[in-house]
Every structure is written in C-alpha cells, then in structure tokens.
Amino acid sequence: MNITLEQAQAAIKAAQQKAGEIDVPMNIAIVDSGANLKAFARMDGAWLGSVDIAIKKAETARYFDMDTGEIGKISQPGESLYGIEHSNGGLITFPGGVPIKSADGEIIGAIGVSGGQVEQDHEVATFGMNAVK
Amino acid sequence: MNITLEQAQAAIKAAQQKAGEIDVPMNIAIVDSGANLKAFARMDGAWLGSVDIAIKKAETARYFDMDTGEIGKISQPGESLYGIEHSNGGLITFPGGVPIKSADGEIIGAIGVSGGQVEQDHEVATFGMNAVK
Amino acid sequence: MNITLEQAQAAIKAAQQKAGEIDVPMNIAIVDSGANLKAFARMDGAWLGSVDIAIKKAETARYFDMDTGEIGKISQPGESLYGIEHSNGGLITFPGGVPIKSADGEIIGAIGVSGGQVEQDHEVATFGMNAVK
Amino acid sequence: MNITLEQAQAAIKAAQQKAGEIDVPMNIAIVDSGANLKAFARMDGAWLGSVDIAIKKAETARYFDMDTGEIGKISQPGESLYGIEHSNGGLITFPGGVPIKSADGEIIGAIGVSGGQVEQDHEVATFGMNAVK
C-alpha cells in the first residue's frame, strides 16, 4: 500500500496549519512507501536550506521505519550506528521525520519537516502524520 | 518579488485539474525566483522517473527565463548550446517547463510538469502558470 | 503490490540460465515497484561496467513503466525526449530493461540486464521477466 | 583469485537462512576482490535504507581487508582514522561487513549485511562468509 496524493496533501495542509499556529515557517515533504517524493511545500519565509533537509528527513524515516530522532540517538559518537548518515546520499538523523501508517498499521510513507527547533519540527511532522486517514 | 506558497499551490491545483481532464497523471513542481523548490505534487499513478524531471524542468525554465522547449531547440547537435544539459547538475531541455510571471511581468518562479507527451506536459504547465494571479 | 525476493531470485535464476545458453555472461538487476534494488547477480566474466548499467536499466524501466529501448527511440537527437538520460542521476535508454508485472497486470518491479549486445540483453531480460509468476 | 557467483549466491542463501532463524529481514551484499558488486538480495520487509548500507559495508570490508566494526573502533572522535567515512563516496564503519577468504586464506571478496542490530548484522554476515568454500 502506498500513500495517495490526497492523503499527502492533507498531511501538508495540517502541517502548514500547525506551523502557522506556532508561527514558524516550515518546509514539509512527503515520500511514499518507496521513499520517492510525493508532495512538498515550502512556506513563505522558511529556510532555503531546509528544502533538502525536509526531504531527507522524510526519506530517512521511511528508509528505517522510525522517527529520525531515534536514529540520531543511536548514531552519536560511540553508539552502534555512528556514521550512518554517510549512507543513501546523506541522511538527516535529528527529529522532524516521522513514518506515516495506514489505518491497519502498514507504513505507507513518511513526512519530513524542517524550519524550526527540532522539537518544533517533530511536533509539526507528527501533526501532519496524524492528519492522514 | 517571489512566488508565494499560496500562488504555487494554486498553480499545482490547476495543473492537477487539467491533468485529470486529459487523463494523464503528472508530476508538478514549482520553483521560486531563486530556482529553489517551492511546492510539488506527484499524482497517483504518475511516473516515478518524472519526479526529478518535473523539478529539473521548473529549475531549467527559471535558470534561463524561457520555456524548456525553447532551450531544447537551441541545444540540438550542431546548435549553439549543444550540451548545455550537462550544466547545473542536469537540465531538462524538452517542453514542460514554463516561467511564471507576476501581474506586472516580473518572473517570480517557474513550473515544471512531467508525465505525458511533451505537448501534454507543456499544456498542463501553461495551465498551471496561468492560474497564478 | 511489490515483487517478492522469491520472485526476484526466480527472475535472476532464469536470466542466468538464458545467458548461459547464449554463452554471454551478464549482470542482472531487479528493482521493486519503488525502483529500489531488490536482487542482483553478476555472472563470472561479465563486464564490471555493466553492474551500474544493469541497475540503471532496471530503474529506468520502472521509472517510466516501459522497456528501456522504447525510451531510447524517443530520446534520440531531434526526438521529443532528447536528453532525458540526464535525469534521475543518469538513465540508461538502450534495450535491456523491462518492467515486471503481476498476474493481474500491475507493475511490481523491473529487470535490467547488461553484458552483451543490446538485443541479447533484452532477450535475457524478457526471459527473466517471464519467470515471475 | 576472485569469488565466483556460485560462492556469492551460497553466501547469500546462508545469510538469508540465518536472518530467517533470528527473524530479522536483512539486506545482503557481496563484492568481489575488486570491491565491485557481485550479488545482492533484499529480504521482504527489510529496511530500504539498508540497501546502500549493506553494499557499503561489503565495499568497506574489502577496501581495508578487515571487519567494518574494527574500522569503526579506530575512526571514533580522537582516534587515528577519524573521518575516514568521508572517503570512497561514503564508508560504513559499524559491524556487519566481513572479508571473505578462499580456502588458502586469500581475500576473494566481502559480505555486507544490514537490517538489524549491528551484532545481528555481524552474526549474519559471518554465517554467510562461512558458507563460502
């Protein structure tokens, strides 16, 4: 199963709304179950450098089927996956990437958000993810 | 001046609608005046390989402020810009990329569409471009 | 739907057998419906440079849901998709890449073969594709 | 001397079997003595991001003729090879890559495994390596 464009655009719309509420312009990317880009939006005033980061966060979350922040914890110096960010053309391993599941629990894609503090990015990504029905 | 996300999403919405009318699922990308990705949508069933092509068409149209098909004409073997597609990490020089202008004629971004015949891509891109007010 | 490893390995086994019959060592790559590598084999004596070509042929066939040779025809100088090979990090647009369909006609992946004349590559790829049930 | 495809496929088959026993779907890559891809398999349900990691582990193990985990120890911050992962288009320096030797002790290739805990990856890689006669 794969995320539809309607679902992806619903996630982006929700994420934009949440980003507006906390007043932080964000880049928001959605990939499908094959980790291929499905939808994207850069809010007015959001960092240009976060285009790539938002996309990489979404890819990373789908590559390993977990929140990007979790990968960050286990890839610190001395930890088991130290250096993993050198794979796949560059991963982003701090918070803001979250897998998206279907109603029956299958992973159908992922959302990546970048533009604020990483906690804000994660909050907005989670809000967007929850908008997918 | 720069395209806003509202304008970019209006262009994508219009392009999706036109693509639906001609029954060809499309990838649609919008870049801003800095040639940086602003918004993107891949319609369900659209070619995976057209994600990159749609983005490169939008970039190419803004890089040179002309329709991508025009660049294609002057970059054929023997023509003056032969080989230009090797620049900028890869250009796409066939139709489907169109600059977007503001009401007063300033270029504020570009749209790139990929997924059908190049004439269809150009038609959908033009329709999306015209939706920007 | 997505190709399984069992199906992918059956395709490779069949392709290896056909390549052995025509006595041309081949590189054989299988990607899934998301164009991600699923299985690969390089026969003893096959060209090293064909590792990447076989993989790119499989990706290209899935990117556009058609035989790579078909893309080659419409991307010659003067044709509508001239220069398309500059997209997606490099396409291969000569024969040897073939989509793989499920029993009900859905594309579930693709096979790419490289190592011989392009007609031989296409023959071996088609034989491998037909081994998927 | 160089690993044969028969040997590489035997290593993959054994690694698949061991991965099945411990119930962790894995990506398994084999490179030859020239560090070029020889064979590959992604088990159903294995991480997409581990395609590249498995291949890079196999390459890394052959590049330096040692287990990837050993390279990880000497490339931590403050250690002598800190930053080595930036070479060769990206190395992977945590466990899961193991050189493969012929019966007379010559290195003929390497195996890289990714998909579980690094200890599991190393266990499966070692099991696959030992299947090469």
From TrEMBL, chains A, B, C, D:
Gene3D superfamilies: Haem-degrading domain. It holds the Pfam family HbpS-like. PANTHER family: PROTEIN GLCG, SLR1406 PROTEIN. This is Heme-binding protein. It comes from Autumnicola tepida. The lineage of its organism: Bacteria, Pseudomonadati, Bacteroidota, Flavobacteriia, Flavobacteriales.
